[in-house]
Structures are given as structure tokens and as C-alpha cells.
Design the sequence.
């Protein structure tokens, strides 16, 4: 049960970075590479003294242009000032470099509504984790720490899964929070890829007061400025409705980035407006980064360990095959070992000369569909993987085989073969935060698409899926493929 393709496509259409408006808690100026003001928010004169002659088409005042000089030329470069060194302006400031080289100035209040002295709270330095249990404890410490330092009512660790859906792995709540999201799964469309891509490029996304009116941005031409790196960017109307449905007024999210990949968001909720000061945001960003670095170190080491296990298990297999006098000759015994080693229900081996199967059998038409699926991949070295063949493999007939992991190989004598591990169907239960397939409830409204109204736990009994293939099994299959090429000739 998933959200239909068309619906997700619609969610991906919104050009978030070209909204042409900002949230009302700050003001914005954009200057071209030639230091001419190209855009300004309608409220800019409330923030900068009149005598600075701020208006679209005019040169940037000296104070601001001196700051712009300090910004690096790479798109996405940032400078943050808690007290901007600009005469007559008592504000915090964030400068970002856009892709077209223009400079965006975000002007923000110096004081936040976060707990006093929150930013002075001591950072918890996460050290490399020794186990998955330790990582889970660290997630809980992280959400607790963010809750205490920010004053939000609820802080969640929201992990993105490979299929784009997300799950709440840790949750810390204050006295005002109602209900619980821990352990619940959410569909990919709740945070569309277009939004995830923006979060990857920023240290945080804050929405201090979702219902507040937006402020328009004026420009020399009709084209709105690129707000990809700009936190003041106005809020997507669909997400505004989503927050309303969740009972959230103020939110902040911090990306957890590991080796360039967005692995999770720390998502914070308040049922009232809540705006963090720049020092507190900086501190929380450092806190999340400390966790992300420790996670990265753990993952690097874990991957090395998995590789070395895959290598030694394959050496062991080789030894057994040699002792048994060959793979084909002793297929019964060897295939049993393979099923155990890969934790699979079935195995198919096309040696180039004959087709061997063991365990769960793929019927002829199933095998035909699987081979076509495997061969649809142009790169012969790419591993094909599915825990839901009915969705992933074209022309898949009804079959007991629900998942497969497969690789092709070419023998030294030029014959082509492949090895496939098969998984049978296993019924799974998934607890969703609201029904992910719920049709839009307000399709007549101005939004067109609308988020769900209810986030009540809803249990899906899922059919047609096999157990997912662990990373170790995938690495072992790559190694086993090398062994096949060595043994078969
Ligand atoms: C953004 N959606 C977000 C954000 C979160 C979620 C955390 C980041 C912005 C923020 O911090 O508020 C989703 N929040 C969640 C989830 C939980 C949570 C899953 O607390 C779980 C407990 N949303 C929809 C649909 C669309 C959609 C159908 O439900 C598609 C049109 C879009 N979500 C959407 C968009 C954004 C978003 C466009 C970006 C908002 C922005 O940055 O302006």
C-alpha cells in the first residue's frame, strides 16, 4: 500500500526555491554580482535605516557591500553574524551566495524566543559508536539535548529509508506535547525529494510561525530570486496545511548528513510560535553535526568489517567447494550452504552450460521475467535487488518468489552465467502515522493536493514482500561472483 505515483509527482512539482516571498520574521535583500540591489522584501525599510537609500536598482550601501566582499564565490557559501556590523541596524544577518553569483542578505532579530542562555548550553561530543545499540542511545540523547536547548515541545529523529519513506526512531517530548510518533512510518511524499534536496544544502530549516502572513519580494524584473539556500523562504502551502493538521505552529529541522547523504532529519515541533536565535541555531547545528560525524565513522568501520567478513566467508565457501570436488558435481551440498550463507529461500545458478536450482523454485515463466529484469541492467556489474518483485520486475507472474538478488558474470571461456538468490513472501506489519493511501480530503480546495488530516497510528499488513537483503549478503554476492568466474571454466 503506497501513495500513488501521480500524487507524488504533483508533490515534486512545487518550485519551492522560487516562491517569491519570505516569512515575516525577517527581511531580505538580493544584490547582483555588480553590487546592485536586484530584489528586496516589502518590509526592508523597517530593518535598515532610511538614510541608506535602499531600493531596487540602486547600488548596495557600503556597509553591506563590505560584508558581501567577504563571502566566498562558491554557490551555497554562507556567512553568519549574530550582530551584523552595519551602522544603524540591530539585527543578525546571514549572507548566502546564489548559483548566479548574487548575494542574498537575510536580516533577522537578534533575540529569539528560545530559553534564555540556551546557546550557552554545553555541547555533547559524540564519540564513535561501538554498536547499533549505542547508536540508538545516541539518537535518544540527541533528541533530548535538542529539546532542552531549544524549548520545543517535541523533538524527533526521523530516519529516511532506502525507499524514501521515513520512520521515527527517537522522540523526546516536553509537558505540552500530546500523543506519540515514536516507531511510526511516514510516506515519502510527506517530505518530497524537492524539499529534501534543499535541506541537504542548508544547516537548518526554520518555520517559526507557520500561519503568519508572508512578505512579498520585489525585483527589477518579474523573475523571483533563487531562494535555494535561504531559510527565510516562505513556507510551502501544502506543508503549512500539514503542520496545521499536526497541531504544529513553530518548527525547525536539522539535517543529519553522512558522507553527502541526507540520512535523517531532527524535526522539532511547538504548538505555539517559536523562533530560535542565531547562536542557539548554531549550537544545535554543531550538536547534530557531532552526532553525524560519529555515525559516519561507525559506518566507515562497519563497512570495512562487512567487506572483510564477506571475503572470509567466500574463502570458506571456496574451500568447501574444492573439498567437495566441484560446484556442479556437488550442487546438493553446496546449494544448501549457499542458502544458509545468504539467508535465502532459493538459489538459481546458470553456469553458462547448465541451469541449477535449489530450495524455493522459480517457475519457468517467473525465471524468464527475472532474467529479463536482470538483463535490463546495461552494466553487467550492477547487482539487481528487490524485496518486492511484483512492483520492481516487469511481467512478474504470480509466484511464491517475492524478492531476488542477482548478478551476471562472464566466464574466462566467454560463456555467460548468472547467480540469483530468491526470497519467499513474508507478511509484514507496518505502523503508519495516518493512512498513507488516504485520498485527498479537500480536492476542491485551492491547494489541489492536500496532506492527511489524521496521523493516528494505522497498521498495514503488507503482502508480496520478502525480507530485505542485508548489506552483508550483497557484498557476499559480489565476492561469490568472483569465485564463480574463478571456478567455472
Ligand atoms: C516539509 N515535511 C516537511 C518537513 C518535515 C515534514 C519535517 C520539514 C519542514 C519542517 O521542519 O517543518 C514532515 N514532519 C514531517 C513528518 C513528521 C514530522 C513526516 O514531524 C513525522 C512525525 N507534505 C505532504 C504532502 C506534500 C508535502 C502530500 O504531506 C506534497 C505536496 C510537502 N513537506 C512538503 C513540502 C515541504 C515539506 C513541500 C517543504 C516545506 C518548506 O520547506 O517550505
Sequence:
Amino acid at each position: 500500500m503506497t501513495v500513488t505515483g501521480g500524487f507524488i509527482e504533483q508533490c515534486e512539482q512545487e518550485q519551492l526555491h522560487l516562491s517569491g516571498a519570505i516569512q515575516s520574521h525577517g527581511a531580505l535583500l538580493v544584490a547582483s554580482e555588480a553590487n546592485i540591489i536586484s530584489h528586496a522584501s516589502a518590509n526592508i525599510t523597517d530593518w535598515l535605516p532610511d538614510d541608506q537609500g535602499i531600493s531596487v536598482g540602486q547600488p548596495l550601501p557600503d556597509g553591506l557591500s563590505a560584508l558581501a566582499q567577504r563571502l566566498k564565490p562558491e554557490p551555497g557559501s554562507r556567512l553568519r553574524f549574530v550582530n551584523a556590523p552595519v551602522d544603524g541596524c540591530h539585527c543578525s544577518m546571514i549572507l548566502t551566495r546564489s548559483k548566479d553569483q548574487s548575494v542574498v542578505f537575510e536580516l533577522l532579530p537578534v533575540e529569539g524566543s528560545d530559553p534564555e542562555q540556551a546557546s550557552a548550553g554545553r555541547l555533547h561530543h559524540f564519540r564513535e559508536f561501538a554498536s547499533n545499540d549505542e547508536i540508538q542511545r545516541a539518537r535518544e540523547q540527541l533528541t533530548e539535548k535538542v529539546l532542552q536547548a531549544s524549548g520545543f515541545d517535541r523533538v524527533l529523529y526521523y530516519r529516511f529509508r532506502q525507499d524514501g519513506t521515513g520512520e521515527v526512531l527517537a522522540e523526546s517530548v516536553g509537558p505540552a506535547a500530546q500523543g506519540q510518533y515514536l516507531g511510526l512510518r511516514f510516506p515519502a511524499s510527506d517530505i518530497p525529494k524537492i524539499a529534501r534536496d534543499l535541506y541537504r544544502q542548508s544547516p537548518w530549516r526554520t518555520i517559526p510561525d507557520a500561519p503568519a502572513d508572508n512578505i512579498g519580494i520585489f525585483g527589477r524584473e518579474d523573475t523571483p530570486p533563487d531562494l535555494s539556500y535561504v531559510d527565510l523562504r516562505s513556507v510551502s502551502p501544502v506543508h503549512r496545511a500539514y503542520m496545521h493538521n499536526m497541531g504544529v505552529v513553530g518548527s525547525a529541522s536539522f539535517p543529519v548528513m553522512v558522507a553527502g547523504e541526507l540520512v535523517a532529519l531532527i524535526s522539532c515541533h511547538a504548538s505555539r510560535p517559536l523562533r530560535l536565535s542565531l547562536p542557539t541555531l548554531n549550537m544545535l547545528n554543531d550538536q547534530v553535526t557531532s552526532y553525524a560525524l560519529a555515525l559516519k565513522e561507525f559506518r566507515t568501520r562497519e563497512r570495512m568489517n562487512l567487506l572483510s567478513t564477506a571475503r572470509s566467508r567466500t574463502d570458506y565457501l571456496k574451500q568447501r567447494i574444492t573439498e567437495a570436488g566441484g560446484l556442479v558435481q556437488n550442487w546438493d551440498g553446496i546449494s544448501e550452504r549457499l542458502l544458509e550463507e545468504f539467508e535465502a529461500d532459493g538459489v538459481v545458478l546458470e553456469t553458462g552450460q547448465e541451469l541449477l536450482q535449489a530450495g524455493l523454485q522459480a517457475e519457468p515463466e517467473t525465471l524468464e521475467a527475472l532474467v529479463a529484469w536482470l538483463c535490463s541492467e546495461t552494466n553487467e556489474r550492477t547487482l539487481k535487488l528487490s524485496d518486492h518483485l511484483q512492483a520492481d520486475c516487469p511481467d512478474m507472474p504470480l509466484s511464491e518468489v517475492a524478492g531476488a538478488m542477482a548478478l551476471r558474470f562472464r566466464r574466462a571461456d566467454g560463456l555467460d552465467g548468472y547467480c540469483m538468490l530468491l526470497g519467499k513472501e513474508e507478511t509484514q506489519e507496518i505502523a503508519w502515522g495516518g493512512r498513507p493511501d488516504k485520498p485527498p480530503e479537500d480536492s476542491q480546495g485551492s491547494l489541489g493536493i492536500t496532506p492527511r488530516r489524521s496521523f493516528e497510528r494505522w497498521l498495514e499488513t503488507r503482502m508480496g514482500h520478502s525480507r530485505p537483503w542485508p548489506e552483508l549478503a550483497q557484498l557476499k554476492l559480489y565476492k561469490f561472483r568472483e569465485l564463480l568466474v574463478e571456478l567455472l571454466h
The mean pLDDT is 92. The chain has three domains: 1-18+112-302+428-462, 26-108, 325-426+466-487.
